Amino acid sequence: MTFVRALLGALCLVLVLPAAAEPGRDPGRLRAAVDAVLDQGSYARAEWGVLVVSLDRGDTLVSRNAHTALTPASNMKVLTSAAALHHLGADYRYTTWVLADGPIVDGVVEGDLVLYGTGDPGIADRFFESRGTVFEQLAADLRAAGIREIRGSVVGDGSRFAGDLRSAAWEPEDVNEWFAAPSGALSYNENVVSVRVSPGEPGEAPIIGSIPDHSGLPVRNEGVTVTGAARPPLALLREDPDDPVLVYGEIRAGGADVWRQMTITDPALFAAHGLTHVLREEGIAVDGAPTSLVEQARTRVGSPRITVPGTDAPAVLAIHRSPPLSTYLRAVNQRSHNLYADLILKTLGWEMAGEGSFEAGARVVHDWLVDIGIPTTGLRILDGSGLAPENRVSAATLVAVIEATSESDAWDAFWESLPEAGDRTLNRRMRSTPAAGNLRAKTGTIRRVSSLSGMVRSADGERLAFAIIGNQLPSQFGAKRLEDRVGEALARYSR
To answer: For 2-90+326-492, which CATH superfamily applies?
Structure first.
C-alpha cells in the first residue's frame, strides 16, 4: 500500500505541474525556473543538491546546496566509472584462467582443475549468446589441449579480492535480491539464480527447479501440494543469504509455478558448478563434485591455497579475456547494474592499491579526486554502486567529475555509457522535448532518494554539466518527473 500511495502521489504531482518552465536568457531566470520546479508541494521540504555549470564558458548557472554531501544512490556510479576510465582505460579487460593443479598424464588431470577469477562480472548472457558460452569456449580449449578427464574437482578460486562480498552498509532486506549480488573475483550468471517451484502430486512436496539448473543453491523444501486453496500460499524465504532457501506453504495442484530470483552465497562455488556442468556436457569427465576455496575451508577438505597464474605451480590450460571496460560501463550506467560497478571498484583497489576490496577501491577513487583538485567535502564511498544509503556525494563533486572527464581522453567512452533522454536507456524520459537525443545522464534511485547527473546542450548548443540529488523525498517516482522538467529547462535555455 505504501508503494501505491507513493505512486498515486507522483501521478497527482504530474497533473498539477505548471506549463514548461521558461528558462529565459538571464541565468537568474533559469535559477528561478529550476527552483519553481523543485519547490512543488511537499517536494519543497526535501533536501535538494543542484549544480549546473557551463563547460564552454566556465560559469555557474544554477547552484542550490551544491556543496552539501547527500545520498547519491546510483549516481555513485559516475565516480566509479570516471575513476575506472582514468586508471584502467576503456580497453581494460579481465582474464579468467583455467589451471591444472596436478600433473597431466595422457589427457587426464591427476588433481583439481582450478577456475581462477580476476573480477570479471560478465561471464553471463548479457554480452554472450548464453550464460554458458564462456565456459563452452574454455571447454573447447581444454579439448584442443587433449584434456579428457579431471580426476579431482573443479575448484572456484575468487581469492584475488579480499574483504566482504557485500557491503556491510547495505540494507539487510536487500541482500537476497538480484541487485545486491555478492561481488567476488570469480562470478557467473551475475551471481543470481532463479528458483522455480512447480506443483507436485496432491499431498506431496512441490518440485524445485532453478535457472541455471546446476546452481548448487541449498534448498529446504517444506512445501505441500494441495487440491484446494493454498493456505498459506507458497513462499520462498531466506533471512540471510548464507542460509538455505526455505520453501514453505501450499501450492495448488495444476496451478502456476512460483518464481523468485535470488542471490547466491559463494560466487566461486557457483562458477565451479557452472563449469563442471559444461565440461561434462562437452564430454570431459569430472570425477569430483564442484567446490571452492571458501567451501573447502568451511568443510575442512584438503588444504586450500591461493593459486597464482604465471607461477611455477599450476599449469595454465585455458584463458578467457573479457570484453573491454567500455562495454561493461554500458551495463553500469545504462542498466545501473550494481554488481558490475562494485566489481569495477574492487578492481581499482586491486590494480592501484594491491587490495581488491570496497575500502581499497574507495581510497583509490577519493585520492584521484583529490589529485585532480575535485572537492571531496563530506564525500563517503562505501561501494561502487550507490546501494548503501550512507554513501555521500555532493552535486559539486559530481559536476566536477563530469567536467574533468569531458576534458580527458576518456570522455567518449564515458558519454557513450550514459543513458540518453527519449531513448529506452533512460526509460523514454523527456521524450518529445528538446532534451531527447541531447541530454545524457546517470539515474539513481533508492528509498526516498532520486538523482540525475550528466550533460545537455542548451538551445544555443552550449554544453551544460548538471547534477540533481534529492533526499528525504515524499516519492522518488514523482521526483523523477521534476528532474525531467529541469532537464527540459536546461535544453531550452538560451543566452
So the answer is: DD-peptidase/beta-lactamase superfamily (3.40.710.10)
Distance of alpha carbon 197 from alpha carbon 431, whole angstroms: 40
CA atoms of 489 and 477, how far apart (whole Å): 19
C-alpha grid cell, residue 423: 531513448
Q: Considering Cα of 160, then 165, then 168, then 170, what sign does the dihedral take?
A: positive
Q: Is the peptide bond before 212 cis (omega within 30 degrees of 0)?
A: yes
CA distance 15 to 169: 37
∠ CA 339-341-347 to the nearest 5 degrees? 100
Q: Which fold has domain 93-323?
A: D-tyrosyl-trna(Tyr) Deacylase; Chain: A; (3.50.80)
Cis? peptide before 232, omega within 30° of 0: yes
**φ, ψ (nearest 5 deg) of residue 366:** -60, -45
- What are the sequence ranges of the domains in the chain? 2-90+326-492, 93-323
pLDDT of residue 9: 41
Contact criterion met (CB below 8 Å) for 290 and 154: yes
Average of per-residue pLDDT values in the chain: 92
* CA–CA separation, 195 and 212 (whole Å): 9
Measured between alpha carbons, how far is 230 from 428 in angstroms, rounded to an integer? 40
d(CA 300, CA 297): 5
CA atoms lying within 13 Å on the CB side of residue 340 = 27
Name residues whose C-beta falls within 8 Å of residue 324's C-beta, 6 or more positions apart in sequence.
Answer: 90, 91, 92, 93
> pLDDT tens digits, residue range 232-259?
999 999 988 889 999 999 999 999 999 9
Packed helices 76-87 and 338-353: angle between N→C axes, nearest 10 degrees: 40
Asked whether this chain's domains 2-90+326-492 and 93-323 adopt the same fold, the reply is no
End-to-end CA distance of the chain: 46
Burial of 13 (0-12, 13-18, 19+ CB in 10 A): buried
Which burial class, exposed, middle or buried, applies to 68 when counting CB atoms under 10 A from its CB (0-12, 13-18, 19+)?
middle
* Residue from 142, 413, 382, 445 nearest 284 by CA: 142
Nearest CA-CA partner of 259 in 208, 322, 222: 208
Residues 82 and 465: beta-carbon distance below 8 Å: no
Low-confidence residues in the chain, pLDDT < 50: 1-20, 301-306
Please state, in angstroms and rounded to a whole number, the distance separating the CA atoms of residues 217 and 188: 13
341 φ, ψ to 5°?
Answer: -65, -45
- pLDDT, one tens digit per residue, over 124-156 is 999 999 999 999 999 999 999 999 999 999 999
Torsion of CA 368, 370, 375, 381, to 10 degrees: 50
